[in-house]
Structures are given as structure tokens and as C-alpha cells.
Amino acid sequence: MAIVLFRVDERLIHGQVVIGWGHQLWPDRYILVDDELATSDWEQELYQLGAGGAGVVFSTTESARSRIAEWREAGERSILLTRDIDTMRRLAEDGILSGERVNLGGIHHGPGRDEVLNYLHLTAADRESLKAIAAEGVEVSARDLPDSHRVSLQTLLKG
Amino acid sequence: MSRDLPRRVVAATFARSFLIQGSWNYHTMLGSGFAFAMLPGLRRLFGSDPDQMDAAVARHLEHFNAHPYLSNLALGAVLRLEADGSDPEAIRRFKVAVRGPLGSLGDALVWATWLPAVAVLALSLYWLGAPGWAAALFFVLVYNVGHIGLRAWSFRLGLAAGRDVGRHLGKTDLTGWTARLEPVLVGSLGLLVGSALAGRGGLVESGGVWVALAAAGFLVGMFGGHRVWRPAAALTVAAIGLVALFGVWQ
């Protein structure tokens, strides 16, 4: 399995991911799945600066769906990141991520978002999307850093 | 729509950037400091319309984090973007994208290299016989040439490049600068160890027990690596506590 982590994180590539997860999983590259980012040069240049020597691949959701199989079989170890829960839901449609684990990292406070954990703030639509991801055979849980406590989807949706 | 920013506004923003950590908090981190520094620019651009002004201040109060010196790069660029009349959502995305690289580049360059290198050099000067005030003055002056220089340079770069700072930052090779500074740090650490051992009032002068203790500590560190740092720190704190208790009891 060459995609070593699927993660939703508003900040995509940043310290927690590169140092926290990167130093446990040693990825060769980060795959950023985001429709807007895939066509934004100036934004791509910024995210490349933060990757600490690893490669960065930018992809739209549609193209990612067709390349998941190729990324899984590749020799390179990848961390796949999306900025929001809805992108991960679209990625997971038709059981494409079935049997995988999706990790929820940081989504910060904003209008219409309730605090579920101190690093995770969800809208009502996010909660529905999380159920939809789980229904595609994916194990969803929250954990900001590899050393911190893993919180199951069931617990997240209770609050 | 692009509007010119008077020098007065640019200078006021730069002056305020020194206080960007002044209201640091866990909720928005540098957010309120960032909004505080943006105020002169926002007043100039939106001051005539209270609703627009409120919205502009509110969007810059949001969560922001980066290295405090390099955050000037974001500050300059966001001032440029606001003056150019950019879409607020694009500005928000810019701030989200820029904080990661500014944080990691700045931490490596300043906290992990520049600060210890200048501090270690100043300490070496002291152990080599310079008066204490001279070593302290050396530290304050040299450190701040780098500190203020970095703030000024990154603010100008941000102001000139706007949202394309990524391309310019990639070319300036801050990582290369960090790599060139590292030998200076390691070299001065060697100088410090040598002067602390053999210099005025140094370890050798203090007597055999201290030399033996220092050698034992060095060996434990060398073979134990990072695994022994927590117990070593606990032991040091316990020892200081015991000495203090003993002092009180006496």
C-alpha cells in the first residue's frame, strides 16, 4: 500500500503534517487533491516550498479518482491530502477508498462550524459527508498528530 | 482596481509589525496582531465605508500563524493584495497557503540557526575574556541586524510580489542560507566548549570533580542520545531543587 495516509486538513502541507506525520511515515511525495488548487500556479508554488524536500502532486478530484489505483501501486510512498471533507467524500464515491482509513486533521473555527475537538470544527453538511464516506466502506477517525488520541467517527458525531 | 499606498501607511504597517505577537493567543495565534498591523492600510482603503471596514478587519482577525519575522512577507503581500482590490476569498486562501512555508523556513533559519549561532558566539567572547557587557552588547547588536534586516527584507519582498511571493521565495534560497549558517553555529559551539573548558574561571580551573562530572554527562549524552534528555532534565531540576532546599535549611 503506497498511499500511507489519507487526511483532511484545511492547511494541507504544514508543520503538523511534514514534521508530525512526515517523520513517522517518511513520504516521498504529497498528493494534494483540490479542484481550485489544481489550476492555481501561485498557490502551488507556496505549497511546494513547505514540503521539506518531498515531491508534491496537484490533482483535481476527478483526475484523482482515476489515478488512485496507480498511486497505490507506485513504489513512492504518498500522503494524500484534501482541504475539506466534501472533496474526500467525492473521492470515496463508488467504493474507491473502500477498506482504507481516512484521518481528520485540522479544520478551524469558522461561520456555521461547531467545535467537535479543539482542532476540528464541523458544519451540518460535513457531518452528512462523513457518514457518506463511512458508508463507502471507509474507516473515518480524527487524530491531529500520530502520538495523539484517535477519536472514532461514532464519538465525533455524538457531540 | 489598484490603489497606491502612501509611504506613511507602509511605514506605519512596518512599525506595527514589531508588535505582531503582542496579542498572541491559542485561538487565532498571530491573527489579532496581523489585523492590528493591517489597520493603517485598511483605514486608507476602506475608511470611508464602515461596513467594508468592519468586514476587512474581521477577515484579518482570523487565525494566522507563521514565523513572526517572516510573517512580514505575508503582511506586505496582503497589503498589496488589498490595495489591488483582490477578492477577499483569494486573500484568505493566500494567507492559508503562505503560513506553512513561512513558519518552517523561519523556524529553521532563525530559531534553530541564527539565534543559537549569535548567542554561542557572544558566550564564547565572554569565556575568552571580553567583559560581560561587551558580550551582551555584541549579542543584542548582531542578532538584531539579522532580525530587523529579515523583517525589512521580507516586508519589501511581499509588498513588491503580492501573491507571487512563492516564486520569489523559491529563488532566494533561504534554505541555502540556513545551510551556510549551520557551520558557523557548529564552529562557534566548538569555540565555546574550548573556552569554557580552558578559559578564565573555566571547568579546568574549577577542579577535578567538575571535570569528571562533565565528562560523565558528555558520555551519557553521546551514547544515550535523545532518549536520555528527559531523565537528564529531570535530574538537573531535582539537583537544583535539592541545592535550593539545602540553602533554605542552612
Describe this structure in words.
The complex is a heterodimer of chains A (159) and B (250). Chain A is built from 6 helices and 9 strands. Chain A is of the alpha/beta class and 159 residues long. Chain A has a single domain (3-158), classed as Fructose Permease, CATH 3.40.35. The longest helix of chain A is centred in the middle third of the chain and has 13 residues, at 61-73. In chain A, the strands form 2 sheets. In chain A, strands 3-2-4-1-5-8-9 form a 7-stranded mixed sheet, with helices on both faces. In chain A, strands 6-7 form a two-stranded antiparallel ribbon. Chain A has helices spanning 15-25, 41-49, 61-73, 85-92, 124-135, 153-158; strands at 3-8, 29-33, 55-59, 78-82, 101-104, 114-117, 120-122, 139-142, 151-152. In chain A, α3 (61-73) packs across α4. Chain B has 250 residues and is mostly helical. Chain B folds into 2 domains: 7-206, no CATH class; 207-250. Chain B is built from 11 helices and no strands. The longest helix of chain B is centred in the middle third of the chain and has 40 residues, at 88-127. In chain B, 31% of the residues are buried.
